[in-house]
Amino acid sequence: MNYNSTRDKSKVVSASQAIAQGISEEGGLFVPQQLPKYTMDDIKAMLSADYRGRAKKIMGDFLSDFTAEEIEESVNAAYTAEKFGGENPAPISYIESGDKKMALLELWHGPTCAFKDMALQILPHLLTKSVKKTYNGKEAVILVATSGDTGKAALEGFKDVDGTKIMVFYPTGGVSPMQKRQMATQKGDNVSVVAIRGNFDDAQTGVKKIFTNNEIKQRLAENNMLFSSANSINWGRLLPQIVYYFSAYCDMVNEGRIALGDKINVCVPTGNFGNILASFYAMNMGLPVGRFICASNSNNVLTDFIKTGTYDKKRKFFTTISPSMDILVSSNLERLLYHISGENAEKVAELMNALNTEGVYTVDDEIKEKLNKYFWGGYCDDDNTQKTIGDLYKNENYLADTHTAVAVNVYEQYAKETGDMTPVVIASTASPYKFAKAVLASVTDEALPEDEFSMVDELSAKTGTAVPAPLASLKDAEERFSFVCDVDEMPQTVLSGLSING
Ligand SMILES: *Cc1c(COP(=O)(O)O)cnc(C)c1O
Fold first, then answer.
1. Mind listing the pLDDT tens digit for each residue in 444-488?
2. Catalytic residues, which ones?
3. 10 Å Cβ neighbour count for 63?
4. Measuring from each residue's beta carbon to the nearest atom of ligand 1, which residues come in under 6 Å?
5. Among 299, 324, 380, which residue has the most ligand 1 atoms within 8 Å of its CB, making it the best to mutate?
6. What is the pLDDT of residues 337-356, one digit of tens each?
């Protein structure tokens, strides 16, 4: 199976090239030329497999220039019971009371307690194998700009992986205290973490400039290195996310919640549109999904797009209690546009160009109609997010994080407005302990303690839930990284970090 660029169909690359390269030269994203198609019998055959078995089948069907051994090795190394706290890395919690019926697919049992682990635990294995196939012998240098979750998940995935080095830049003051502590205490011999004086956009722009700086690229080449990307536009991050939708469906059949062949709906708290797009791919491969419910916080650019067909990023940016969804340019939407426009690369290039130059585009009626056939969009502000966390805890004894609560709230809006009672899978994307302050404030009326770990302890004492071990251990962990630099010092920081500053 080969891959095209969303902006230029004449670009055709193999799976390993798509993963090693990350993004196409002209700025397009790589998409599979065709999808594996599964019949109900194929899905039935997955029922008896475990998560790893399902992952090997599905990922193997996409990664046609990988050997079966390479896929086996990658999957077995990534999804261990040790790393994910149990045999099933993506277990489901059911909420069923009255007319409320929700399956919460918990994707946060990995080493960094957010759903990014589902992809970033396996990406390093796929990436090193891809680099070996396409740029044999080179060392991959991964640069990441992060607003919190991606940086830590990438560090944890790439730490001590042979043939790679990873550098993460985060905005000093722009991440939560827990996220900062997670990164500053990161272990591993091939990792470095740098805080920059600026915001997330400054960090991201700085990294992009380094990626395209010819002098730096030349210096890397002389030292047998090349840049690579671990952010969510890489196909190697999207593919592993398709697996858990099939796996959740199989688990629901096995647990007697649905019958094989029944339709489900999917609701996802969305930022960069990666997670929800993975479920759309699953549907196009044969998973019986009726509707995709796209949940946003106050940065509701996607809600407006789904309702009106106009994507307008020129709007106020809100800093919310669900920070991993604070985003106005939702990169993976480009892949959806490609597929629902009938793979019209010229059209996609035109729309993305308009977004870059004017900050806004409008899709035609045909695309809008397709979009609304599958997608429903809604949003939830901070007050309603906290109210939802409080209600879920009080009425259902379920402790949700801020992102998951946005999805639950928007799903309830959807059910009320449409009356559609199809069983729903809601993506639960982070541990509540990663956002302890907002979660604790939602379940108590008492004054909050001052420091992060006191809040964590109090949340645990109040709710009787356990603090995830990877977060509990941070309290006494040694801080390894405290370096802060200005944005214009980033290139020099990269070169000296790699010991190639000549
Ligand atoms: C990244 C993230 C999201 C958004 O996922 P996308 O794939 O970017 O849409 C939602 N919740 C949490 C906790 C995240 O870390």
1. 999 999 899 999 999 999 999 999 999 999 989 999 999 999 999
2. 116
3. 24
4. 114-116, 149, 232, 269-275, 324-325, 403, 429-430
5. 324
6. 999 999 999 999 999 999 98
